[in-house]
TrEMBL record:
Species classification: Bacteria, Bacillati, Bacillota, Bacilli, Lactobacillales
Region feature Disordered, mapped onto this chain: 51-72
Database matches in Gene3D superfamilies: Immunoglobulins
Leader sequence segment: none
Compositional bias segments (type: Polar residues): 56-70
InterPro entries registered for this protein in UniProt: Big_6, Ig-like_fold
Protein name: Bacterial Ig domain-containing protein
Residue ranges occupied by any Bacterial Ig domain in the UniProt entry: 44-104
A Pfam family hit: Big_6
Amino acid sequence: MIAPDQVAPEENLNVAAIVTAGGKDYRSANTPITVPEDNQTGIPTIDPVTAGDDTISGTAEPGSTVTITNGDKDPVVVEADEEGNWTAEVPEVSEGDTITVVAETDGKDPSAQSQ
């Protein structure tokens, strides 16, 4: 088994399946694969938020589009600056609100969601 940190994007590998049955190993033929390029936007961060805040900030990949969502309120979209910082004016945050943030960089898949 190869751990993800032991391979690089675009690396060529040969893989095979090994099944053990009745005390005997059965091996498939080698199959060539290429490790896919990591094509997902990095997960953005959110600075601490408290009830009453109407501005939220954090970091993301520089130049990425950042979408901030608070429950059923309209999403707010901003762009991270050249250093990756972003700030958004949002409807006032209430106690118990769940703020989520997703970033997207041109040519990459959207990031995982952060809260």
